[in-house]
What we know:
The protein is mainly β.
Amino acid sequence: MTDVTISSGVQYIDDYAFSYCTSLSTITIPDSVISIGWAAFEHSGLESVTIPDSITSISGYMFHGCKKLADVTLPDSVTSIGGGAFSLCYSLTSLDFLPDGVTEIGDSVFHGCAGLVDVTIPDRITSLGEGAFYGCENMVSVSIPSSVTTIGYGAFEECDSLASVTIPEGTTYIGEYAFYECNNLEYVSIPDSVTYIGENAFRNCPKLSLVDFSEEDSSASEASISVASEDGISVASEDGISVASDSVTRSIENDTFVNCTSLTAVVIPDSITTIDSYAFGYTYSSSKKTYTAISGFTIYGYTGTAAETYANQNGFTFIDLADSSTRNVLATPTLSGATNTSSGVKITWKEVTGALLYRVFRKTGSDGTWKKLADTFSTSYTDTAVTYGTTYYYTVRCISPTGAYISSYNSTGVNITYNLVTPSVTLSNASAGVTVKWSKVSGASGYYVYRKTSGGTFSKIATITSG
């Protein structure tokens, strides 16, 4: 049984109906079907599936273990996806098939999806459930939108290829084991909107070397922001850039960063009022059941805060960021320019000696307010959130390996008006004719397809509003 067509009039597909039908590659489901049961297609050989608009929810584990499933079409009528629905679907490569009505990625929905590499979570998603992306071992990057307020227990646990994570402003909760054993994670940025970081959230991340608790004040304006103290962190000035904000009370639970052996220093803002036992600066031996302090561990913070208390309680070096004598200086990045590409605006700059990463800022209009755009380890960044005809200004500052020292920036920046570029086109023969493909152009609302024969003139043959 390789191809199945469900008869019109059938309303229900029972639990496990096609479970372990390993030869099943395609199935046609009529609009008469109003319910598809638990694990209906688990471990089948499905390669593609289209769910009719008579369905409003995807049941738990419906496609669990469908290793060949690469093409999924879900109707807008679907508003919920059950736990484990697409777990162990190795051939899925994106989340583009999620309909607009789905606002939560539930427990284990994409657990073990090895085909997910560069993941963009849709900006309508508000929460990531327990183990949502657990064990996505090839996930190199993930873009989490500001709509996400909750990152659940073990959401990205054992995502071994993940190198950096920027938690967006708006997220308030990072659950226990959220990034546990992400063995290649080097950098994480945690904004001041986060009020809770659970136990073991970043435990056993041996390459993690920088935890950045600083974040720009998203409401800052040139009129309202004052010159910050010379602490190397809040180096804001009249232009409206601020890279630290201490307005929200936050707590860090037990063992949050235990066994992060590359993390030898951390900068803690005074908004963090509670730091529990062994949160930073320790390794743990499960065989000996003992904690060992990381030699030379240093905490940068402010006198009289939880940072100083934690340092003193644990015998760690404490450096007061309000003391100007402790500051080091990084050179201001030299901006090389900005260019229009099919993906958006690409900004480039020169490498700065001593910098670990670079923070990119953007504003619209010369009198606008700088807003943080992204952090990157590279000396270039492509801004994909651009609109045709809009003029953007960009600037960059760099951050030291500890996160304690941040450079100044070019206050003028570089500017460019984003214009659409010509898409690259490829042609191939198909049984039905000629297949025309092209690169997606950021900011485009649609595409006109033209054709001519040898020696002829181009004439429009199609209008495409997506793709």
